[in-house]
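Example record for the data management plan.
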Amino acid sequence: MNERLTALPTSDRRLLLALSAASLVALLLGILGGLMTALARGGMIDILPESAYRFLTVHGVAIFFYWLYLAQVALLLGFAAIEDTRVGLAARGLARAGFAAILAGLILSVAGSLMGTPLLYDGAPELATEEPAAMLVFSLGYLLLGLGLMAAPTSALATLLRPRREGRQERMSAVGFALFAWAGFLIVSGFAALHAFVPTALWALGWGPFPASHGTNWHILFHNMHYLPLMATVLMWYVLVQALTGVKSVFGERFSKIVFSAYLIFVPPTSLYHMFLEPDLPGAVRVTGSLLSLFVSVPTLTAFLIIVASLEVHARSQGARGLFGWLGRLPWRHPAMAAVGLAVVNMGFGIVFAFVLIQERLAPLLSDTFFVPGYFHFFTVGTVSLTLLAALAVMMPALSGGRLALPGLMRLMPWLASAGLLVFGGAGVAAGYLGVPRRVIDSTYGGEAPALWQELMAAVGVGGAVMALALAVFALGVAAALLPRHTASAELAVVPWGGVAVRPGAAAWVGPVSVLLIVVAMYAFTALGFELMQALPVTATGGGAH
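Corresponding structural encoding:
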């Protein structure tokens, strides 16, 4: 893989490095906003509520929309470019135009976040009725993001189709097929951004009515933006495992293609759960939404089983013993391996709590509490961000000829970030069970709130600070690959299992046992949720969780 990335045309390598660098800038900006928000929620700094909400807006916009999607575009284009033996991007103009649009969108979205009343990351027009100029700038940012997400992935599609169009390929590889589906999802997400924010921009310009349906349009956009990074994460696990160990799926490419295509089947119907807080949503729709939402984890867990089982049988073929003995043979000295390994663990926590939230009886009680940020960061930070950083840590040095800074320190950062995340997420989920609201900066309510609320939020602040600093250190270590080096890059540890025959009868138990533990934990936390909710003195439902 490294050789093919290095062999890309200079113009492609520069574009991919620029995309990667922009994504890291967005990440660091979002980390700063998140750190300030966590410290304010924990009562560790005293700032005006409006300033805190502004930090929260910058955090959500920079991380959720620009870091995650700039990184995805960079990785999609990079790995699409090396799928063909004739390396290089097709339709390069579209890739460049898409990058320019997304970068301009980032500038406008951040500028809109700093103007007038903080709009939060969903850009609710109700907050800008007196300040349409801020709404216009904010909306234009997301519109440019949407256009960029429609243009740049089209270049990836053209690149992946080129060998078939020229008669040099009979069928796509499993990775190529997944990249093709990923590009399609990105284009759909770009269209969803236009669908959500064209009406707000027209209203801000005075050319259209007030966008009363913005909440519904946002749910459609949010659902795409919410789940697409998980597909990208699973694909990057697949690619990185091959890069770091040489291991491919022992189940064959056909089965891998079926798993990747399952995202096309299971993700779109699950958007119903985002509307569980709407008071007029029929009960039958709520139940259907809960059942459908259970299926969204099917492709992710199946891909997890494929990857873990493939690694385990190869390690056992190398002589690994014991249930977990094979784990010690993985190349943990490589920062990317540490990040991927912790991402898998964090995904387990995220899935457990996600299953609790999507249940129609618990969702109305939990969706406007701090349970949501508590569980969600297990995905956005602990799973997706660590995986994307791991992929950039592999791709960027190959493109630039540089090397990661302090790899020995970097490989400790995923562990530290995950420890902070465990404190942040655990305290956040507990706070949500006890009713702490998700978007109230001062949860003491002037001393009227239970003392336990502030103690839990103090833990959130501490965990958030540790998580933010560890993630920033890892990101800066990756960014160091942009610096020119006059000496050859040191090779980081990998294991050469790709050419080793799998021993007949080699068993793989860790994957199935892990899924069983996730199911048991899901039932345990669901039961705990019902017990705690029944003990609350007041039951209420609200509207518009996102």
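Summary line stored alongside the record: The first helix runs from residue 2 to 6.
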